[in-house]
Amino acid sequence: MNSFKWHEEAEKQWDERANFWNQNSKEMWLNGSRKTIIPFITQHFEKESFVVDIGCGDGVGSFLLAQAGFHVTGVDLSKEMIERAEKNNQQVNLSFQQADILSLPFQDEEIDGMMAINSLEWTEVPAHALKEATRIVKSGGYACVGILGPTAGPRANSYRRLYGEDVICNTMMPWEFEKLANEQGWSVIDGHGVYKKGVNEQQLGGLSTELKQSLTFMWVFLLRKS
């Protein structure tokens, strides 16, 4: 019997990565792969609505979302991440809680929207994680979900599974996530790709969405709950 406890190991490893993540996250949100996400959300989410940032890490994204006019709670499995988030991000309409995505501390249909950027891939069964996230969002509410694309370097975190080793990264393709979301009552409203240097975005216009997704570092979805 496999004694590997996925989420306990995930918490441990993300605690260990907290310092490294903290050194890079602000740059990612302001100038890097995540710089389009907050402006994208503001186009769709109603201002002053209650949004939960699932897998908030050190809280930079949560802070920027709160600055943009939303009431935000950031949740993360890692105690170290939450401690850094609370220390470094002070905002009246912002709070943080340590919590597992499989057991979120909110009532059914309590929140207006959620943000989950590269967090569903770090769960043992992403379908279960999405089901729990879906539970807390109001009918008609929105979700912004970022899924790592095929060209994302972090996929190396899941490579050792090919040897039958236990890992805490469960990769999926953007088109797989879209099917999963549809099956759980979400409709895709909008989306865009984040690409590495070398991809000529002017040449992407004639490609299907799936082909565009196949070239991405990350695909950012905007979903609406039925």
Automatic annotation (TrEMBL):
It comes from the Bacteria. The keyword Transferase applies. CDD domains: AdoMet_MTases. Gene3D superfamilies: Vaccinia Virus protein VP39. InterPro entries: Diverse_substrate_MTase, Methyltransf_11, SAM-dependent_MTases_sf. It holds the Pfam family Methyltransf_11. Residues 52-144 form the Methyltransferase type domain. Keywords: Methyltransferase, Transferase, Ubiquinone. Belongs to the methyltransferase superfamily. This is Ubiquinone/menaquinone biosynthesis C-methylase UbiE. It comes from Priestia iocasae.
